[in-house]
C-alpha cells in the first residue's frame, strides 16, 4: 500500500537544494552523542587503542569519529571488524557494539584482532536519523567517490591500516519508522513512488550474495535465538521484500549497493537487523541480541581457525 505524500517536495520530482535545506531545517537534536556514546568509547582507553579516524563538521556541531583497535595486535591472528550506527537512529547497533567492547572483548584476547567502530554516524545518532545532514544515506555510500563523510572516513581508516579482515559484522535495526518516515523520505528525495514493505517481527540477517556463508549465518542466528526471537518470512517467503535464502536470512549484493557490509573483502560478512518495535522485545534485549550476534560470529570463525 502506498504511503501518503511526503511533506517536503513535489511528488515525482527529485529534491533540489531548497528541498534538502527544508528537510535539514526540520531535524532536531534529540539525544547526546557525547554523553551516550563518546564518553563510553573514551573510557575504553585501557582496553583498546583509541583511534580518531575522522572529524565531521556540521552546523549542529563537530563530531569526532572513534575506532577501537586491539592493543595486543598480532598479525598472525584473524581480524574481525564490528561496525555500528551506520544508520545513527538504530540505537541497539551503537549500544551493542559498545556493550561488546566493554564486557566481552577481553574474552578474545590473543585469539582475534578486533576493530570496532561503534557509531559511524553520530549526527544521525543525535537526530535519530537514517541520513546525514546532506540527505545522504551513509549505508549506501561505501564506494570510491562517495560524498558521505561518515563512509569516506571509515574507508580511509581501513585503507590506512591495510589489514586483511576475516570477519565483518555490521549492526542494524529495522524499525516501524522505516515505513512511516525513512522510506517515504527516500522516495520523495529521489522523485519516485514508494510502497511499504512488511516489517519483520524479530531478528534477521542480511548476508552477502557473493559470500553467503550459510553456516556462518546459521551460527549467528543460533547464538541470537537464546536472547530474542528470529523473524518469520512473510506470505511471499520474503523479508523486507527479498527472498529468504534460509530461515532468518536474506542476501544483498553489498558492494553494488554501497553497503557498509561490503567495505572490506572479508570472507565472513553479515548485517544484523533487530526489530526494536516488537511487543516481544525490550530495548535491553535488542542490545543483548547484537552482542550475542557478535559473539556467535566470532565463535564460528575461531572454531574454524582452531
UniProtKB/TrEMBL annotation:
Peptidase M14 domain ranges (all copies): 29-305
Domain of life of the organism encoding this protein: Bacteria
UniProt similarity note: Belongs to the peptidase M14 family.
Name of this chain's protein: M14 family metallocarboxypeptidase
Amino acid at each position: 500500500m502506498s504511503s501518503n505524500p511526503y511533506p517536503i517536495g513535489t511528488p515525482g520530482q527529485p529534491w533540489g537544494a531548497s528541498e534538502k535545506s527544508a528537510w535539514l531545517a526540520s531535524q532536531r537534536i534529540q539525544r547526546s552523542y557525547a554523553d551516550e556514546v563518546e564518553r563510553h568509547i573514551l573510557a575504553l582507553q585501557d582496553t583498546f587503542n583509541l583511534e580518531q579516524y575522522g572529524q565531521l563538521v556540521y552546523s549542529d556541531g563537530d563530531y569526532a569519529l572513534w575506532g577501537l583497535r586491539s592493543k595486543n595486535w598480532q598479525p598472525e591472528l584473524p581480524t574481525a571488524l564490528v561496525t555500528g550506527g551506520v544508520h545513527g537512529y538504530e540505537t541497539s547497533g551503537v549500544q551493542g557494539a559498545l556493550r561488546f567492547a566493554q564486557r566481552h572483548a577481553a574474552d578474545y584476547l590473543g585469539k582475534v584482532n578486533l576493530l570496532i567502530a561503534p557509531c559511524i554516524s553520530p549526527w544521525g545518532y543525535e537526530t535519530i536519523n537514517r541520513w546525514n545532514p546532506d540527505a545522504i544515506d551513509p549505508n549506501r555510500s561505501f564506494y570510491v567517490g562517495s560524498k558521505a563523510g561518515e563512509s569516506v572516513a571509515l574507508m580511509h581508516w581501513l585503507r590506512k591500516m591495510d589489514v586483511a579482515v576475516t570477519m565483518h559484522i555490521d549492526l542494524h535495526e529495522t524499525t516501524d519508522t522505516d515505513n512511516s518516515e525513512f522510506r517515504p523520505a527516500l522516495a520523495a528525495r529521489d522523485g519516485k513512488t514508494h510502497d511499504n514493505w512488511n516489517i519483520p517481527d524479530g531478528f534477521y540477517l542480511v548476508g552477502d550474495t557473493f559470500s553467503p556463508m550459510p553456516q556462518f549465518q546459521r551460527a549467528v542466528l543460533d547464538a541470537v535465538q537464546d536472547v530474542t526471537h528470529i523473524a518469520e518470512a512473510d506470505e511471499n517467503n520474503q523479508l523486507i521484500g527479498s527472498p529468504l535464502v534460509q530461515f532468518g536470512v536474506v542476501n544483498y549484493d553489498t558492494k553494488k549497493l554501497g553497503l557498509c557490509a561490503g567495505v572490506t573483502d572479508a570472507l565472513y560478512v553479515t548485517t544484523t537487523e533487530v526489530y526494536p518495535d516488537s511487543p516481544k522485545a525490550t530495548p535491553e534485549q535488542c542490545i543483548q541480541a547484537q552482542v550475542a550476534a557478535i559473539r556467535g560470529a566470532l565463535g564460528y570463525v575461531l572454531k574454524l581457525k582452531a
